[in-house]
């Protein structure tokens, strides 16, 4: 398997910390076993994180003259309300619910996100907003209910819970179990993006994503067209929403793709992405510049042994026994995953390595699977009640 260089740290760093800027060491297996199981998602940031988020928002860079002019021009196109120069689609007649909803969507913060995504190019930003407004009118992401995606949501593979040190909500996306309905998986991702935005504290516009590929297999990999559709939705209709993204135990092919694509990525975007590798007993260790590396710090290539090992879909017998801390109501698959997290993830000590995720997320906000102290086990009924009863701050 690929290894991280023990002398390297992640390209992702936190600008500030609610707890002094230091990441606590990950708990050992014995400490994890003593932690109480929690199934209620964290949808409100602790006061210290909320204060930190507000301070970061207040200190955000001010617009320069060119950027201020671009925002004013885009707002003028919004004020036009109708016609070819407006950013509102011409099919949205003024005075109709579709038109009013589109205008309400186009806040200053929204316009700025599209301008930043299009490098302050007015025409590009206007076209992007118009495309999103049409998509939202047709796809209706804000009207997706848990009933629409219940068969996929109850698997507990995609959900929001916790906040990083900058107040960004944490969205977990885990590849586990059977694929299910690919179209519903896209709807589930969209639903969770909408809810992640809903729980953002005031002044926070971005989220932190943890993609977990630990149980990834070809069998649960979505078709290419579904992957493309998901990517298009995220990049085109939720621009400038990613604050940090971690890929945990990504398949070997990601190493190849990253080598090919990363030189073409904007440096700011590239710095937001981290790859994290876990091996039993060694914890989550960061690599240099988000790249896989071997022990010498040089770039590593996939071998047939790497490929064969990544293709395995086996569960060691040692992780099946004794999931004593998991409530009986939790599904068997979740009990197994819970026990796996207790057995497999510990922080290596004395090697100079650092848990990249703990460098931006406090341990009490991060699940034990990734080096934190939050012993979270997804319970669909509890999660549903929490997310549907949530009221924005």
What's the layout of helices and strands?
Blueprint (H helix, E strand, L loop, with lengths): L28 H6 L12 H12 L6 H15 L17 H9 L2 H10 L4 H18 L10 H4 L4 E6 L5 E6 L7 H17 L8 E6 L11 H14 L4 E7 L3 H10 L5 H5 L1 E7 L3 E4 L17 H8 L20 H13 L35 H10 L4
Parallel strand pairs: 2-3, 3-4, 4-5
Antiparallel strand pairs: 1-2, 5-6
Largest sheet: 6 strands, mixed
Strand order of the largest sheet: 1-2-3-4-5-6
Helix content: 25-40%
* Silhouette: globular
Note the run of SSEs as H and E: HHHHHHHEEHEHEHHEEHHH
**Radius of gyration, CA atoms, in whole angstroms:** 22 Å
Can you characterise this structure?
This protein is an alpha/beta fold and 393 residues long. Helices cover 38% and strands 9% of the residues. The protein has helices at 29-34, 47-58, 65-79, 97-105, 108-117, 122-139, 150-153, 182-198, 224-237, 252-261, 267-271, 304-311, 332-344, 380-389, and strands spanning 158-163, 169-174, 207-212, 242-248, 273-279, 283-286. It has a 6-stranded mixed β-sheet. Helix 3 (65-79) crosses helix 5 (108-117), helix 5 packs across helix 6 and helix 8 runs parallel beside helix 9. The longest helix is centred in the first third of the chain and has 18 residues, at 122-139. It starts with 28 loop residues before the first helix and ends with a helix. Residues 1-18 and 280-354 have low confidence and may be disordered.
Task: Output the keywords.
6 strands, 393 residues, 6-stranded mixed beta sheet, 38% helix, disordered N terminus, alpha/beta, 14 helices
Give a brief outline of the structure:
This protein is α/β, with parallel strands linked by helices and 393 residues long. It has 14 helices and six strands.
């Amino acid at each position: 398997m690929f290894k991280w260089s023990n002398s390297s740290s992640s390209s992702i760093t936190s600008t500030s910390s609610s707890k002094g800027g230091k990441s606590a060491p990950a708990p050992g297996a014995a400490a994890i076993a003593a932690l109480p199981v929690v199934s209620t998602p964290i949808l409100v940031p602790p006061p210290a994180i909320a204060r930190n988020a507000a301070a970061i928002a207040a200190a955000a860079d001010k617009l320069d003259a060119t950027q201020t002019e671009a925002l004013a021009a885009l707002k003028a196109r919004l004020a036009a309300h109708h016609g070819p120069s407006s950013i509102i689609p011409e099919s949205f007649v003024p005075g109709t619910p579709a038109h009013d909803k589109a205008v309400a969507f186009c806040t200053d913060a929204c316009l700025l996100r599209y301008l930043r995504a299009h490098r302050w190019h007015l025409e590009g930003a206007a076209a992007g907003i118009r495309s999103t407004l049409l998509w939202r009118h047709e796809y209706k992401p804000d009207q997706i209910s848990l009933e629409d995606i219940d068969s996929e949501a109850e698997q507990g593979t995609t959900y929001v819970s916790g906040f990083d040190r900058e107040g960004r909500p944490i969205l977990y996306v885990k590849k586990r179990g059977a694929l299910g309905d690919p179209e519903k998986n896209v709807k589930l991702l969209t639903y969770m993006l909408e809810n992640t935005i809903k729980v953002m504290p005031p002044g926070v516009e971005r989220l932190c994503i943890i993609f977990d590929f630990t149980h990834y297999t070809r069998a649960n990999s979505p078709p290419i067209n579904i992957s493309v559709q998901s990517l298009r939705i995220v990049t085109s209709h939720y621009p400038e929403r990613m604050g940090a993204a971690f890929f945990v135990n990504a398949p070997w092919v990601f190493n190849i793709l990253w080598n090919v694509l990363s030189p073409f990525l904007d440096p700011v975007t590239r710095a937001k992405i981290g790859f994290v590798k876990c091996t039993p007993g060694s914890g989550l260790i960061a690599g240099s510049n988000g790249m896989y590396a071997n022990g010498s710090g040089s770039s590593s290539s996939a071998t047939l042994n790497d490929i064969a090992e990544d293709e395995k879909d086996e569960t060691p017998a040692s992780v099946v026994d004794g999931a004593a801390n998991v409530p009986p109501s939790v599904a068997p698959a979740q009990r197994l995953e819970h026990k796996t997290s207790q057995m497999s993830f510990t922080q290596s000590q004395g090697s100079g390595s650092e848990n990249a995720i703990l460098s931006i997320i406090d341990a009490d906000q991060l699940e034990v699977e990734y080096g934190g102290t939050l012993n979270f086990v997804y319970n669909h009924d509890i999660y549903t009640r929490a997310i549907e009863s949530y009221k924005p701050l």
